Structures are given as structure tokens and as C-alpha cells.
Amino acid sequence: MTAETQPIRSIRQRRTWTETAWRELKKAPITAWFGMIVILLYALAAIFAPWLAPYGEADAVGRAYQPSSWQFWLGTDQIGRDVLSRLLYGARNTIAIALVTTLLSFFIGGTLGVLAALKRGWLDQTVSRIVDAFLAIPVLIFALMLLAVFGKNIYILVLILALLDSTRVFRLARATALNVVVMDYVESAKLRGERLGWIVFKEIVPNILPPLITEFGLRFCFVFLTISALSFLGVGIQPPTADWGSMVAENKTLITYGNPMPLYPAGAIALLTVAVNFVVDWFLHKTSGLRE
After folding, report:
1. Using CA atoms, how far apart are residues 175 and 216, in angstroms rounded to an integer?
2. How do the domains of the chain map onto residue ranges?
């Protein structure tokens, strides 16, 4: 194959992959489409929050607990901040922190899990026993204890949750990688003298991606809900930074007076969780080889 035909072949491969992906999307159930649309809307709200929000994140622009109106579509909170603006900024803060935390947990847990399955021996035994010890402690209680020790800081929050959540990722990555490292093509790569990076990224990771991608969606939901729970308890994202968990905590007493304001952030949390699970269920169904 000449150098001139290589770009043409690459373009054709990308076109074929795009056509295949679009065919699969068209066959997706209505629940998966609902989940993808909701996720897209949340992503747009998070990215363009400064331009979509009518007021600033922490600006007191009215009286406390003003009802819904043309000026304040969802009303104002306990110090006169616009609830709609807080919801949009809360999407940016809560989702971004949960996404970064999940990515970091997969980097730590996935790397250690694949290396433990590939190397075995003392590395596997040592990391597995440490992970077992962490898994014996409930995540929320452990996170509360560590945040009380190290302080209420976003960077500390991300690091603590990533380390705690990486234990779950490690178990899955190790279990799936153990089924791959004994395959003939991995043994052949070792006999050829391929480097560790080649074996991991060319032979093992591509064959364990479907369960890891599925787990990524589930772990994102768990991290997202944990951050909201910690913020509700007052040890997560700190004010005046907008966060859906703290918004529920700040206005929860209004439920007794028939004011729906606490339901807005609570509904946003529930809707995103359901949407991600719909997409994960569809993806798991496609990659598992099951048929209707």
C-alpha cells in the first residue's frame, strides 16, 4: 500500500465506523434515547452555565423566598439568590467534580487492577488485601471521617472519593483482566518480547473495555450521589459554590409549607441518575451479545 492510499483508507475506516455507530443508535430503545438526550442537555447546561444563567452564581438579586415569576422563573432561595441560576451553576460544579473524580478513580483502580492481574505474585496479594480492607468500610462513613480530618476542600474531596471508589474499579479490572492474561495472544506477545505498555494497551485493555465502560457509568452515578449526599450533610462542596445537594439541604424545610423549591435540585439529581442508568443498561445489553 502506497503512502497516497493510506489517508484514503483511514477516511474510509472512519466513515464505516461512523455509519455503524449511527445504525446502532437508530436501533436503540426509547429509554436509551431518553437517557442520551437528558445527558446531552445536562452537559450543555454545565458547559454554558455562565451564558444561560440569568444571574450570578452567588448574587442576591431579590428578597428571600420569592415565588416563581417572570423575573425569577423558579423563585429565590433563603438569601434572595435566583434558584434557576443556582441550578445551572450547580450542574457545572456537581457534574464536573463527579466526572473528574470518576476518571481519577478509574485511572488508579484500572491501572492497579490490570497490573495485578498481569504480574500476580506479591503485587497482586498486597494490593488485593489493602483493597479488601477499604471495602469493609462504608464509603460515606469513611469519607466523612477523612473530610473531618483533612478539611472541607474540593481537591481533598475529589482525592478522597477517587481513592475510595478506585477499590471497586480495581476489583472489576483485575477480575476481567485475569480472564484475558491467560489467552494465547497475550502469551504470544510476551514471547515476542513486547514491552509491558504494548501488552497492556494493545492486548488487554481493548478486550476488557465493554465492562469497564459500563462500570464507568455506574461509578459516575455512585460518585455523583455521594458528592450530593456529602454536600447535603455540609461536608461536601462548600457555599457559596452552587451544588444540588447543598441546595436541597438549605431549603428542605420549605416542603412542610408546600413550597416545591427543594424538589428542583432533588429532581435534577434523580433525573441524571436515571438517564445514565438507561444508557448503561442499553450499552451493557449491546456488548453482552444478548438479543431480544
Report:
1. 15
2. 30-288
Tell me the longest C-alpha to C-alpha distance in the chain. Answer: 75
Under 8 Å CB-to-CB from 188, ≥6 apart: which residues? Answer: none
In a structure prediction context, what are the per-residue pLDDT tens digits for the chain, which is 292 residues long? 454 444 544 555 555 656 666 676 677 788 889 999 999 999 999 999 889 989 888 888 888 888 888 888 888 888 888 989 999 998 888 899 999 999 999 999 998 998 888 888 888 889 889 888 888 888 888 888 888 888 778 888 899 999 999 999 999 999 998 888 888 888 887 778 778 778 888 888 888 888 888 889 889 999 999 898 888 888 888 888 888 888 888 888 888 877 888 889 999 999 999 999 999 888 887 776 544 4
The CATH architecture one would assign to domain 30-288 is Orthogonal Bundle (1.10)
Please choose, from the candidates 97, 128, 98, 96, the residue with its C-alpha nearest in 3D space to the C-alpha of residue 112.
128
β-bridge mates for residue 81, sequence order = 60
Q: DSSP assignment, residue 238? A: P
Residue of 142, 117, 111 whose CA lies nearest to 212? 111
Task: State which H helix or E strand residue 176 sits in.
Answer: helix 154-181
Alpha carbon 268 to its chain's center:
15
Q: Which helix (H) or strand (E) holds 153?
A: none
From residue 145, give the alpha-carbon distance in Å to each of 72, 159, 222, 237, 245: 39, 14, 19, 16, 19
